[in-house]
Amino acid sequence: VADVDDFTIDGNFPIESPRLTIGAGASTSIGRALIVGGTNRGELTVNGGGTVSVDNGAGLVGSGADSTGTMTVTGANSTWSATQQLIIGGAGNGTLTIGDGGQVSNGLGGVVGSVGDSAGDVMVTGSGSTWINTSTLTVAMSGDGTLTIADSGQVSNTNGAIGDGGGSTGMVTVTGGGSTWTNDGELEIGD
After folding, report:
1. pTM for the full predicted model
2. Residue 15's pLDDT band (cuts 50, 70, 90)
3. Across residues 91-110, what is the average pLDDT?
4. CB-CB contact of 102 with 125 (8 Å)
């Protein structure tokens, strides 16, 4: 994929589900926004040491109402990064899986399940698998959100929040030896 300002992975119709894989030795740079599942469906996989960076913007997975976005970052040296937020389940349904040493990092924090009817699900599993938020991580801001950290997966952020808005449902599970969720500041449960 050539370096571009904005990039959207999305089907023209609800039944379409375009897939993009950034694999071994490949890299791409997005200038402002990367959207996976804008109005319909989309999938992004980063594996085999591939690299995706959003240099001056955010990542949105399951951005629009009724959309479905899936992002997978798996394997040692496979990285996804953004200078701004990463939102899993913006107004639709979003899924993020980080496995087998994959690494995800973002500035301005992360949100899993952003607005009313949205749903976000994040799994961080396996040794070396990390999700680094340089600001607040919110699981279920106003939508529904689930975060699972397993089998030595690691998640870190400044402040953390679970079930931050009225009507939201948030759940965080940390399981297995070596699995950690590091909150450098406050952890707020319910609002």
Report:
1. 0.95
2. low
3. 97
4. no
